[in-house]
């Protein structure tokens, strides 16, 4: 698929006019219109409803709009990363994390490292635990954060090393609209009343298996569901549509007036570790310093 066509498509959506895009891009209106016709022919759908003075997206066009943004953004990100490789490799660190919660641990250490080495170039990715682990194993990432909860972050057969950098307890988020939020602890039996959510940016079985291994009192596995963003998860919890797993210590209960964070009662152990995964045989000076900053 021609990237220039996609970029032109996004500009047409932005301006709502072939003529305005042509004026901004110093092209003829005919050229812009031809590009959009070529794109429609390639996709075999009609993207625009064309009027005399204005065009608008068809339902298929609105659906494709989000995909086109992702394609262009991913290409731009990949291009930026490729250009960073012009920097000496001893000044580049490639790191990954899996959720919005533990990114603060990573950010604090990277900020301190960047402050120490102003020329340091950083490539930062977010993804599922499975993808991040594989990228570290393949050498595409120098380090990734993962979680050890109910099951180890890596298998015994892997060549990667897992260094714990943070430990705490997993808690359940309960809406303040729910009378259960007044309890000091949440009994396991109460968890059957609503869906239980966990957050992962990509479709992932790793966290699902972790939660199931840590909650043997849940017998209906369909009750545990993934959401693609932390914001969506928190919204559903606050509105009393679901419960959710949250990592204590990486959320701020004192400033949250809509959600209570409760431990599970009856002595159910819910400890978790955030671990740094890396290949010890390929660790650089920068990587070793980053790990030291995260563990100190």
Quick structural gist:
39% of the residues lie in helices and 22% in strands.
Q: Which features does this protein show?
A:
single chain; alpha/beta; Arc Repressor Mutant, subunit A; D-Maltodextrin-Binding Protein, domain 2; nine-stranded mixed beta sheet; 11 strands; 39% helix
CATH architecture of the largest domain: 3-Layer(aba) Sandwich
Question: Could you give the count of β-strands?
Answer: 11
Shape: globular
CATH hierarchy, class of the largest domain: Alpha Beta
List strands and helices in order, with pairings.
Blueprint: H1 3-15, H2 18-25, H3 29-43, E1 48-50, E2 55-57, H4 59-84, E3 92-97, H5 103-116, E4 121-126, H6 129-138, E5 143-148, E6 161-175, E7 196-199, H7 206-214, E8 224-227, H8 230-238, E9 243-247, E10 259-262, E11 271-278, H9 285-295
């Amino acid at each position: 698929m021609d990237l220039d066509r996609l970029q032109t498509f996004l500009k047409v959506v932005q301006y709502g006019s072939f003529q305005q895009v042509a004026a901004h891009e110093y092209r003829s209106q005919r050229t812009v219109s031809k590009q959009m016709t070529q794109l429609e022919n390639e996709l075999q759908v009609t993207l625009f409803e064309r009027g005399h003075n204005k065009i608008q997206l068809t339902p298929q066009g609105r659906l494709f709009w989000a995909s086109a943004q992702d394609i262009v953004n991913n290409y731009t990100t990949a291009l930026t990363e490729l250009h960073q490789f012009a920097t000496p490799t001893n000044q580049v660190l490639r790191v990954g994390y899996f959720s919005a919660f533990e990114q603060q641990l990573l950010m604090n250490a990277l900020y301190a490292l960047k402050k120490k080495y102003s020329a340091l170039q950083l490539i930062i990715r977010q993804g599922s635990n499975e993808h991040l682990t594989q990228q570290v194993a393949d050498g595409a990432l120098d380090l990734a954060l993962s979680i050890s909860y109910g099951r180890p972050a890596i298998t015994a057969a892997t060549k990667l090393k897992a260094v714990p950098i943070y430990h705490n307890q997993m808690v359940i988020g309960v809406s303040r609209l729910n009378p259960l939020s007044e309890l000091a602890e949440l009994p396991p039996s109460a968890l059957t009343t609503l869906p239980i959510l966990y957050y992962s940016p990509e479709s992932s079985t790793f966290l699902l298996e972790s939660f199931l291994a840590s909650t043997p009192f849940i017998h209906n596995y369909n009750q545990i569901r993934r959401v693609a963003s932390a914001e969506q998860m928190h919204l559903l919890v606050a509105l009393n549509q679901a419960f959710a797993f949250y990592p204590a210590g990486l959320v701020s209960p004192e400033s949250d007036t809509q959600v209570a964070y409760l431990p599970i009662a009856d002595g159910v152990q819910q400890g978790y570790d955030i671990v740094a995964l890396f290949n010890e045989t390929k660790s650089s000076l920068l990587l070793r310093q980053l790990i030291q900053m995260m563990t100190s």
